[in-house]
Amino acid sequence: MDGSAPRAIASSLQAVAAPQSEFVVYAETLEYDTASGLQFIDITDDVRGVLDRSGVTSGQVAVFSEHTTAAIVVNEHEPLLLNDMARMLSRLAPADDYYEHNDFTIRTVNMNEDECANGHAHCQHLLLGTSETIPVHNGELKIGRWQSAFLVELDHPRHREVFVQAMGVSAR
Which of 1, 62, 92, 111 lies at a 20 to 30 A Cα distance from 120? Predict the structure, then answer.
């Protein structure tokens, strides 16, 4: 073994060129009412719907959570794995731990009348992230066989919005 990095066995170049008039940017906001904290909501079909309505055949779809306590991830949709991931997040940032963010006797920034103690949800969000970008090829999301896009509720049940933007070449 020479210690060098693995190399791709084969690759293919897939170039797409189009006049500017065929380039599309299309966006929708998807809305969800979550049922509980640490809930994984499969939004793959909804993202596919946005892609279909956009007409984009080659490009990408950006999926973005408009919240700091709800994440977007791509992972396997297998119920026991989703339980494992929720348990892991709970262990890494438990809801019953001390968070200065939750200490309303010292916190003075970004406060609302209905402020809740959700420092754990913000810390869990740090581990997951706000968005995913999914390639589009031949009008389809280029995700793996077992992959799904999820909205992950990290806080408590509430209304959530996910911004989905498809960009690329249209065949229309």
Answer: 62
22-109+116-170, what's its fold? Jelly Rolls (2.60.120)
Q: 5-23 burial, b if ≥16 CB within 10 A, otherwise e?
A: eeeeeeeeeeeeeeeeeee
Under-50 pLDDT residues of the chain: none
41, 150 Cβ separation under 8 angstroms = yes
The pLDDT assigned to 42 comes to 98
Q: How far apart are CA 24 and CA 55, in angstroms?
A: 8
Question: Between helices 79-92 and 119-128, what is the axis angle to 10°?
Answer: 120
Specify whether the CB–CB gap between 169 and 56 falls below 8 A: yes
- pLDDT, position 112: 85
Give the pLDDT score at 171: 76
**Residue appearing with tokens 């408590």:** 156
Cα–Cα distance between 162 and 71 in angstroms, integer? 10
**Stated pTM of the model:** 0.87
